[in-house]
């Protein structure tokens, strides 16, 4: 890439990244190398705000008598818990209607950074400051902007969330090196290693200098999470191959914390990001997490993007974050002010921890109930249930039954809605079914599937 063709700010960021870690510079896509966060209107507005002159004619917002010019009847937002009307919160007009910085609300970033370290006590290395994105989907979009080119190799299992295809394959032209997710009801570590070796060979043949690994635990659609000992095996496989190429590991932590099979004596589950954030100078780990599933806040659309690499300096992370902010700026301008304000209220509430434990326990009760239901041997006639221990979902592999046809029959004639993944798999979201209705749900699916098989 000709440096003369790049914006001077992009060149400056690239030089910092290359000087701090050449491997990370090589991981960037051509678009990623071109990307930068502009120092125009936003930078000037920020400096004006710091100086705080009497007359500020900078903001692209309407102001009257020092307050935002919004509707009088929409001056503030009041919220309350359904069961505790007196226990409410209020969010001011400015925290609803004004623009948010691309870098996010500082108070929220501080809280989320603290949360990452509390949830992952072994994460003792220096990591980047999280940058807000509009949900994990947008985080994946930003990641693909900065790190994916056509024909880049992505290692991921055969059972995946369908939106990966739109983002990675259709938008960016990446290629998959896939592997069967399970081997004897455990994560398929041998299949993973084979797929990674194959991806490295394909990358070398295409004169590529990196491969990408996507880890989504708890997994959508299966609801499965490997034990910490298996995460360490995955880490060891990746580490021994790190000298053959540069590796970008994306940890999609959308369902982090929703683990349902642990006992008090078992080892604490942490994000896979913890295992990779300080592993090797050729391995860049990217953590994508957020409020959507983890904090039961689906419509707020607040996610975060955090980076980690061995010997990662603040200088390196700041330069990469400028590129992340450039992608955010050029795609959605900035994140939702009200979403970030609400999330900060949620995380700061005195009852947050207690209620979160209660809600996870409720979901765990549903998951354990489904596991118990599926122990019935009669179901073996029509499906195999993949193991699941976390998240929102579980997946059934049908035996001699067309999944789209079963989906249609369940919906049109049996008042049941599920998701078919392909011709032989259906996904069941136990997260959205009350515990008392789970027996009926699986009995109907079984009855219809058995009839269709006959």
Give the structure's gist in a few sentences:
It contains 16 helices and 17 strands.
Mean pLDDT: 91
The CATH topology of the largest domain is what? Aspartate Aminotransferase, domain 2
Helix content: 40-55%
Q: Looking at the structure, what is the overall shape?
A: globular
Which band does the percent of strand residues land in? 15-25%
Q: Based on DSSP secondary structure assignment, what is the total number of beta strands?
A: 17
| Helix count from the secondary structure assignment | 16
Class of secondary structure makeup: alpha/beta
CATH class of the largest domain: Alpha Beta
Secondary structure blueprint with pairings:
Elements: H1 8-20, H2 22-27, H3 30-34, H4 41-51, E1 63-64, E2 67-68, E3 77-81, E4 84-91, H5 94-97, H6 106-119, E5 131-133, H7 135-147, E6 153-157, H8 163-170, E7 175-179, E8 182-183, E9 186-187, H9 189-205, E10 210-215, H10 228-241, E11 246-252, H11 273-276, E12 283-290, E13 303-308, H12 314-331, H13 337-348, H14 352-373, E14 383-385, E15 393-398, H15 403-414, E16 419-420, E17 425-429, H16 438-453
Parallel strand pairs: 6-7, 6-10, 10-11, 11-12
Antiparallel strand pairs: 1-2, 3-4, 5-13, 8-9, 12-13, 14-15, 15-17, 16-17
